[in-house]
């Protein structure tokens, strides 16, 4: 089959790779209709993620049709149209049973790597290197879905592919941020980052009753989208002092819940192997700002995916202000059915986020637009079915 | 001072090398030093532990070791005890000093006995919790080899 593979720093190419195979009884094989780029792919693309290697198939936000099921799969049949949660979880361990599927104990066939890095094994994510399972990604014609009964969800007929696609990762990430942030009616919520994840966080906060939602970013087109589709106010740091502006808009209190949906700051510098493996630290400017801005006793949710350590984390403010700091990969298995229902009711619209659609073969171009935020790109959506060349 | 070693020592005193049964310890919990079980390379008698979200009787049905541990046969010692807070069973194992691990494990995980034990524990956990052991994607090279 054809798949979009990482071939080197800032390089991807379509390669012919073997079709995925059923490896476990709970597996399904899905034929991909749509697969989206994500901010989480950018460190990988830049070769900054440890263990990324040439030939790895990228992509973890996807929707498609079941074409094969293992003997233990009960909830899906060949022909089902499904959206698949980006993180892999077994559904039966203590974490899965306790509502923390992205902490699953059994979602990673190579747990040693995460254990060495984080102290405990971390579950798999599609299209990521060995530390996160080494499962081939979804920028391909087909993808293997482990624990298909747990991670794949049938899409109601009334929800289009273009909308349901975002139930794979960006929408559950945003929902989770508002949920674990404890957003309640009357709250003021601030969100750093107006990518798909930040915009869907803002929308989730609104749906959970937040009184005001304020999105911070320096990308005009994305801020306009957040205003239009998430009913959010915006702050552009190029024209305003963000902490001062937030203080003023919240009567001096600071936002009740602050969500970072940015990820590691990327200074364009390619890091040496030594830096990558000895942990030269990322800078988390948006996390810092969120911690400073948050009201006393409030909650800061870190959605951005940081590989290891960060520099200059304002721990003093966390204790002096009594903050709660939360972080997680999205617990999609908890949220996807509810999100699909909201999509069916028209409460949650996401299709505007797919600003660019192209065949796999134009993946390199699609990633360049997405990475550089050019041409209004918020998400590039790749479809293996689109004709390769005009 | 071993954490699990102290708990397990007496229970194991009577167990013959190579016995294919584990003993279930009930109510013999002791405060463990910080660091938690399962820390690699831990000097406390080499015990490694996983928590299996199933009752002890399911983890060791009829006292029989689960298959991944049985493969290591007489080369390891095994202990189980209930996990606190309804979290199932703490399943512990360590290599028996001086007894080489059977070849299969060395072939799969290299010749570090601690890694082999850890891998077997994880597999036992996954079998009990999900019914199978999650397998990695095969690389194109592996697939070529298998035909
Ligand atoms: N936790 C999860 O489960 C989960 C799921 C998906 C994505 N993510 C992570 O969420 C983050 C955002 O994802 P995305 O796909 O929306 O990424 P994206 O790259 O499309 O968007 C990031 C946005 O942050 C803005 N930004 C950069 N620096 C900023 C700053 N200092 N202040 C305010 N805004 C700033 C950028 O202009 C951009 O619009 C990534 O780190 C991604 O890895 C997490
Ligand atoms: Zn994503
Ligand atoms: Zn699980």
Quick rundown:
The complex is a heterodimer of chains A (390) and B (147). In chain A, 28% of the residues lie in helices and 20% in strands.
What would your notes on this structure say?
- The complex is a heterodimer of chains A (390) and B (147).
- Chain A has helices at residues 41-45, 94-97, 111-118, 148-151, 161-164, 170-180, 196-207, 220-230, 242-249, 273-278, 285-293, 315-320, 332-344, 363-372; strands spanning 2-8, 11-16, 28-36, 61-69, 81-84, 142-145, 152-154, 188-192, 212-216, 233-235, 257-260, 299-302, 324-327, 354-359, 379-383.
- Chain A folds into 2 domains: 2-169 and 331-383, Medium-chain alcohol dehydrogenases, catalytic domain (Quinone Oxidoreductase, Chain A, domain 1, Alpha-Beta Complex), CATH 3.90.180.10; 170-327, NAD(P)-binding Rossmann-like Domain (Rossmann fold, 3-Layer(aba) Sandwich).
- Chain A is an alpha/beta fold and 390 residues long.
- The radius of gyration of chain A is 20 Å and the shape is globular.
- The longest helix of chain A has 13 residues, at 332-344.
- The mean pLDDT of chain A is 94.
- Chain B is α+β, with helices and mostly antiparallel strands and 147 residues long.
- Chain B has one domain.
- Helices cover 35% and strands 14% of the residues of chain B.
- Chain B has helices at residues 3-13, 56-59, 67-70, 103-109, 113-130, 140-146, and strands spanning 23-24, 48-52, 76-82, 89-95.
- In chain B, strand 3 (76-82) and strand 4 (89-95) form a beta hairpin.
- The longest helix of chain B is centred in the last third of the chain and has 18 residues, at 113-130.
- The radius of gyration of chain B is 16 Å and the shape is globular.
- The N and C termini of chain B lie far apart (51 Å).
- The relative contact order of chain B is 0.18.
- Chain A binds chain B through residues 17-18, 20-21, 23-26, 55, 72, 90-94, 97, 105-112, 115-116, 133-136, 144, 146-147, and chain B through 40, 51, 53, 87-88, 115, 118, 122, 125-126, 129-138, 140, 143.
């Amino acid at each position: 089959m054809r798949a979009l593979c990482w071939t080197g720093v800032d390089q991807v190419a379509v390669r012919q790779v073997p079709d995925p195979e059923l490896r476990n009884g709970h597996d399904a094989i899905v034929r991909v209709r749509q697969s989206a780029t994500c901010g989480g792919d950018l460190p990988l693309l830049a070769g900054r993620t440890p263990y990324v290697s040439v030939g790895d198939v990228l992509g973890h936000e996807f929707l498609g049709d079941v074409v094969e099921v293992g003997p233990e799969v009960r909830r899906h049949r060949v022909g089902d149209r499904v959206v698949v949660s980006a993180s892999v979880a077994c559904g039966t361990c203590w974490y899965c049973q306790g509502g923390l599927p992205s902490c699953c104990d059994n979602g990673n066939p190579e747990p040693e790597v995460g254990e060495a890095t984080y102290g405990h094994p971390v579950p798999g994510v599609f299209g990521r290197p060995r530390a996160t399972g080494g499962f081939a990604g979804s920028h391909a014609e087909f993808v293997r879905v482990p624990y298909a009964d747990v991670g794949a969800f049938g899409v109601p007929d009334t929800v289009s592919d273009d909308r349901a696609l975002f139930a794979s990762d960006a929408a559950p990430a945003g929902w989770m941020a508002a949920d674990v942030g404890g957003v309640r009616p009357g709250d003021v919520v601030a969100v750093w980052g107006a990518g798909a994840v930040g915009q869907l966080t803002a929308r989730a906060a609104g749906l959970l009753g937040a009184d005001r939602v304020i999105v911070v970013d320096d990308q005009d087109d994305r801020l306009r989208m957040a205003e239009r589709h998430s009913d959010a106010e915006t702050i552009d740091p190029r024209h305003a002092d963000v902490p001062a502006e937030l203080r003023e808009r919240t009567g001096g209190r600071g936002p009740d819940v602050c969500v970072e949906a940015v990820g590691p700051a990327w200074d364009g510098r390619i890091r040496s192997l030594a830096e990558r493996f000895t942990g030269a630290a990322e800078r988390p400017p948006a996390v810092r700002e969120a911690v400073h801005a948050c009201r006393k006793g409030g909650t800061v949710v870190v959605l951005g995916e940081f590989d290891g350590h960060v520099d200059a984390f304002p721990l003093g403010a966390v204790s002096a202000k009594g903050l709660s700091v939360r972080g997680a990969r999205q617990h999609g298995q908890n949220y996807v059915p509810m999100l699909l229902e909201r999509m069916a009711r028209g409460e949650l619209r996401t299709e505007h986020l797919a600003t660019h659609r192209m065949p796999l073969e134009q993946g390199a171009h699609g990633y360049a637009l997405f990475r550089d935020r050019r041409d209004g790109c918020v998400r590039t959506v790749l479809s293996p079915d689109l004709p390769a060349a005009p | 001072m071993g954490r699990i070693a102290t708990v397990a020592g007496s229970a194991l005193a009577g167990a013959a090398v190579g016995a294919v049964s584990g003993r279930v310890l009930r109510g013999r919990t002791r405060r463990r030093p910080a660091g938690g079980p399962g820390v690699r390379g831990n000097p406390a008698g080499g015990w490694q532990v996983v928590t299996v979200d199933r009752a002890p009787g399911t983890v060791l049905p009829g006292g029989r070791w689960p298959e991944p541990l049985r493969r290591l046969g007489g080369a390891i010692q095994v202990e189980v005890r209930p996990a606190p807070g309804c979290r199932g069973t703490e399943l512990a194992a360590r290599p028996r000093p001086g007894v080489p691990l059977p070849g299969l494990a060395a072939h799969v995980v290299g010749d570090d006995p601690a890694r082999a034990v850890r891998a077997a524990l994880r597999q036992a956990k996954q079998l009990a919790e999900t019914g199978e052991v999650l397998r990695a994607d095969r690389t194109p090279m592996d697939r070529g080899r298998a035909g």
